[in-house]
Write a structure and sequence with these properties.
two-stranded antiparallel ribbon, alpha+beta, six-stranded antiparallel beta sheet, 29% helix, endopeptidase fold (from Nostoc punctiforme)
Amino acid sequence: MRRAEIVAAARQWLGTPYHHQASLRGVGCDCLGLVRGVWRDLCGPEPEMPPAYSPNWAESLGQETLALAAMRHLRPLQLAQAQPGDVLLFRWRAHLPAKHCAILSAPDAIIHAHDGAAVTEVALTGWWRRHLSHAFFFPGVSD
């Protein structure tokens, strides 16, 4: 799988309305649902289904649940090494677990689903960069 294919697959989700815990292109998804959907589009069936989770699951659990799940199925890399097609995780506060994910679509842009909005491609601004916590690549990626 090539990085350009991952970005193209993620762009097919643009405009999908935000819907908590969903993962259906054109119907609804959250940030995890976007990554899950791109996985299905390119890798096949999901390796595990996420448990039900509330909007504030990271704060209430206080565990790196999202990062640990990513480590089970994606390959970790240093933030500085992230390239288009990689999955990025973000934490809203330094003391909280990562709870948001996006796909890097260009060196300075991400595709993500955010509460109250449709899947969109936005600039990877300084604000987003300050909240970056993890980077991963899909298994089998070739440049």
